[in-house]
Amino acid sequence: MKEKVLERFLKYIKIDTQSDENSETTPSTEKQFNLAKVLKKELEDLGLQDISLDDKCYLMATLPANTDKKIPAIGFIAHMDTSPDMPGAVENPNFVFNYSGEDIVINKEKNLVLTTKEFPELEDYIGKTILTTDGNTLLGADDKAGIAEIITAVEYLVNNPQIIHGTIKVGFTPDEEIGRGVDHFDVKKFNADFAYTLDGGGLGELEYENFNAAGAKVYVQGRNIHPGYAKNKMVNAMLLAMEFNALLPANERPEHTANYEGFYHIVKMEGSVENAMLQYIIRDHDKVKFEQKKQTITEAVEFMKKRYGDDVFRLELKDQYYNMKEMVLPVIHVVDTARQAMEEVGVVPVVVPIRGGTDGARLSYMGLPCPNIFAGGHNFHGKFEYVPVETMEKAIDVILKIVKLYTDK
């Protein structure tokens, strides 16, 4: 299956599927349909049933049960889009065969090197085949690795009908990278008892806790006056924006946090003397601390309003998703079974909180409990992204073992 999953992955990453947070359509970019149509054809060729690709770019399909035994319908889900942060069409990935444990030069001209000092987890993959970018794009393992793994696992079941299994549901979504991955996901139509997203990182990751998440935009209205005549008249929106940012706790930035610690992350800033905008994401696993962080940013805006006027600062604050743990705990067997599946195929489970979010978080609140399993990639969203091919193969083994464990119960 190693060759199959690699062949699929290399095909998928050539297709540009960047989403666009500034778009108001679903999907946010029409080019996501280019991959969706390729996947639809593959599912048709495999003989799956109830295949649908709707006008919002949600692709679903069913592998029917081949037994009358009562077995839960299990879903496997991945997203088709790649991050807006970098170009997403990969033409020249680098292969490192039988990785020796040394630093990996991914682009000599740009002096881009995957060093074991900066990325020590590389040493976990000595002897493996590692696929990297060429330094000009991201790789797209987030989440085209997950797609390739799901389809390859389904293909294996189709080609080995002697393996007894229940109903398997497959779902591929758009726009996960911009927080809209399940905006139009029809849980009732999908009709699974529970599901797994294949959207995690390194070998063994198993996640059923994620951040509570909110997004904030702070708008600053300045007043531009010729600098030669600006005394007591000019209001420089950029300076006020910097003053506002300094009100937020510096030790609660992503670069200073780990594990269950939340953060404020400024992801974008635009400005001139006349206008400025600061965009933040706010994250915390703990619901109380999450609410406190939203209160802090609200109070910071109110403080600046009192100092400079109500019409100078404006806040837009919106919740994005919540910690799935609350929804998964009542059906913790979905986590326990995934853990057992990993152990039985020789993978050490690494149960960690997601320092981010997946489609599964929102799906869990929509009535589809949906923990997250590793897809294999590292350093998502940038030129240092890489994936060990053998980890993708192990993800397939985990999928198949989950299916078997529920069949045997």
Report on the architecture of this protein.
The protein has 2 domains: 2-209 and 323-408, Aminopeptidase, CATH 3.40.630; 212-321, Alpha-Beta Plaits (2-Layer Sandwich), CATH 3.30.70.360. The protein is 30% helix and 22% strand. It is built from 10 helices and 17 strands. It has helices at residues 2-13, 32-45, 141-159, 187-190, 237-245, 287-308, 325-328, 333-344, 359-365, 389-408, and strands at residues 49-53, 59-63, 74-79, 94-96, 104-107, 112-114, 130-132, 168-173, 194-200, 205-207, 212-221, 263-271, 275-284, 313-321, 350-351, 372-374, 386-388.
Task: Set out the fold topology.
Elements: H1 2-13, H2 32-45, E1 49-53, E2 59-63, E3 74-79, E4 94-96, E5 104-107, E6 112-114, E7 130-132, H3 141-159, E8 168-173, H4 187-190, E9 194-200, E10 205-207, E11 212-221, H5 237-245, E12 263-271, E13 275-284, H6 287-308, E14 313-321, H7 325-328, H8 333-344, E15 350-351, H9 359-365, E16 372-374, E17 386-388, H10 389-408
Parallel strand pairs: 3-8, 3-9, 9-16, 10-15
Antiparallel strand pairs: 1-2, 2-8, 4-7, 5-6, 7-17, 10-16, 11-13, 11-14, 12-13
What characteristics describe this protein?
409 residues; alpha+beta; Aminopeptidase; Alpha-Beta Plaits; 17 strands; globular
